[in-house]
Amino acid sequence: LWKNIDPAPPDAILGLTEAFKKDRNPNKVNLGVGIYKADNGRTPVLESVREAERRILDAGEEKTYLPITGSEAYGEAVRGLLFGENAGAMSERAVTAHAPGGTGALRLGADLLQRFRSASTVWVSDPTWANHHGIFAAAGFEIQSYPYYDRENSRLDFDAMLAALKDVPANDIVLLHVCCHNPTGEDLSPEQWEALAAAACEKGWIPFLDFAYQGFAEGLEADRRGVRAMAEAGPDCLIAGSFSKNFGLYCERAGSLTLTAHTADDAATAESHLKKTARVLYSNPPAHGARIVTTILDDPTLAAQWKEELAGMRRRIHAMRRQLADGLRSRDVPLECDHFERQQGMFSFSGLNGEQVDFLRDEKSIYIVRSGRINVSGLTADNIDYVCESIAEAVKT
Ligand code: LMR
Questions:
Q1: Per the domain annotation, does 59 fall within a domain?
Q2: Ligand 1 atom closest to Cα of 131?
Q3: Which of 25, 44, 217, 283 is the most buried if burial means most Cβ atoms within 10 Å?
Q4: Which of 18, 33, 107 to mutate to test the pocket of ligand 1 (most atoms within 8 A of CB)?
Q5: pTM of the full predicted structure?
Q6: How many other CB atoms are found less than 10 A from the CB of residue 117?
Q7: What is the DSSP string of 302-320?
Q8: Start and end of every Aminotransferase class I/classII large domain (predicted)?
Q9: Single residue among 298, 320, 344 that ends a domain in this structure
Q10: Residue 119 phi/psi, 5° resolution?
Q11: Which pLDDT belongs to residue 295?
C-alpha cells in the first residue's frame, strides 16, 4: 500500500514540537505550539485542577460511555462561561456538545454544516490558524479568505474586513476568532463586533466562532463580547470552545460545540443532528477533562481559585510581551515593536519572514511558526535575552 506514496509534510505547528524534541542544543527554545508555559519553562497543572482530580478519584465514578453530546452538567458549564451572567433566553436557545478539543469541535461543526450547507463556501481570515484550512477542506468545503491583517502596518484592517464580509453571500459560513486571534493577536473592539453581527443578520451568512482562548486577553467577561454580540443580534451561529488553554487541559480534549437557534424547538432539532454527526465521528467524548471542568465550576471556592490562576497566566503573558518589545527596542531591531504589547493572547505576529524564521531554527534552535507567529508564553527570564539577541541577528543578516 505505501510503496509508491510520498510521505506527508510535517504539521506546520505540531511538527515543530517533534523537531524541537530532537534538537540537542541546550539553549533551544520552543516558541511554536500554543501551549502556555510558566517562567520555569514548564506547563503547569493548575492547583484547582489537581484538587478537582483528587475529588474525582475519591468519588470513583464509573467509566461507562457518556451520552453522545457529553454530560448535561458539562453543557451547562460551557454555556455559563460562553454567555455569562443574565444570559437568559440566549442560553435557552442554545445546545452544546462536548467535543474532543477545539479542533474536534470545529470538525464536528464542519461536518454538521456539510449535511445542510454543502454548497456553501467557508470564509476564513487572512491569515488564520493553519489547521482551519485543513479542517474545512477535509469536511468538503471550498475555502476563501477575507482581509484581516494589514502586514505593512502591523495592524487589523477592519474596514477591509467589513467591506469583504458585506459581500459574502447568504448561507456561506464565516469563521471568526472571538479573542486572541490566532496567529496575529489582533482582536476586534465591541463596536466592531456589533458591526459584524449586523452584517451577519443583514447578509444572512452563518457565523462560526472559534473561541479557544477565553480569559487570555482581558478576562472571562470581556473576552466573550463577540459571542454576546452575535447571540444578541440573533443569527443562528456555531461556537467552538476549548478548555485546553484556560484550564491547561491540553491532552484531555475538553472542547465544545455550541449551536444557537431562534427558538428552543429549533435548538432541539439542531441537537438531534449534532448527535447524528458526532456518533459517526467519535461516538461519544472522553470524560476526564469534562469532569475536571464541572467539578471546578460547580464549586464556588474552586472556581474562584481557577479564575485567579487564569489571571496569573494572563498577567505573565502581558509581562513577557512588554519584555520582548523592550528587549528588541533596546537592540535597535528594525521591527515594529508596539504591536507586541498591543496584541492579545499567547501569540504575537512578529513580522519575521520565512528566511528569518529558518535562520532562528537552524542557527539558534529557536522554533517559531513559519508565518512569524511567536508563542510569547514560551519566553522566560532565562531565555528572553538569548531570543532578543538572536532575533536582532536574524533581522540584520
Ligand atoms: C496552536 O495554534 O498552536 C494551538 O492551537 C495548537 C494546535 O493544535 O495547533
A1: no
A2: 9
A3: 217
A4: 33
A5: 0.95
A6: 15
A7: HHHHHHHHHHHHHHHHHHH
A8: 27-391
A9: 298
A10: -85, 0
A11: 98
Q: Over the stretch 42-96, which tens digit does the pLDDT of each residue have? A: 999 999 999 999 999 999 999 999 999 999 999 999 999 999 977 777 778 899 9
- 63 CA to centre of ligand 1 in angstroms: 29
From 251, 275, 298, the end of a domain falls on: 298
49 to 45, 54, 220, 263: CA distances (angstroms): 7, 9, 18, 36
DSSP state of 186: -
7 falls within a domain: no
Look up the ipTM and state it: 0.95
Instruction: Please identify, by atom number, the ligand 1 atom nearest to the C-alpha of residue 369.
Output: 3
State the catalytic residues.
Answer: 129, 210, 245
Which residue is associated with the grid cell 472571562?
Answer: 220
Instruction: Tell me: do 139 and 229 sit in the same domain.
Output: yes
Phi-psi region for residue 351, left (φ > 0), alpha (ψ -120 to 50) or beta?
left
How many Å separate Cα 291 from the centre of its chain? Answer: 21
Residues lower than pLDDT 50 in the chain: none
Q: Are residues 294 and 317 in the same domain?
A: no
Can you tell me the distance from the alpha carbon of 232 to that of 87, in angstroms, rounded to the nearest whole number? Answer: 9
Q: Render pLDDT for 272-285 as a digit per residue (tens, 0 to 9).
A: 999 999 999 999 99
* Cα–Cα distance for residue pair 105/227, rounded to 1 Å: 16
Give the CATH number of the domain where residue 87 resides: 3.40.640.10
What is the domain count for the chain?
A: 2
Question: How many angstroms does the Cα of residue 392 sit away from the middle of ligand 1?
Answer: 26
Is the separation of the CB atoms in 281 and 287 below 8 Å? no
Residues 253 and 328 both lie in one domain: no
User: Cβ < 6 Å from ligand 1: which residues?
Assistant: 13, 33-34, 129, 131, 182
Q: According to the model, what pLDDT value does residue 86 have?
A: 74
Please say whether the beta carbons of 211 and 240 come within 8 A: yes
Residue 20 CA to residue 347 CA, distance in Å, equals 18
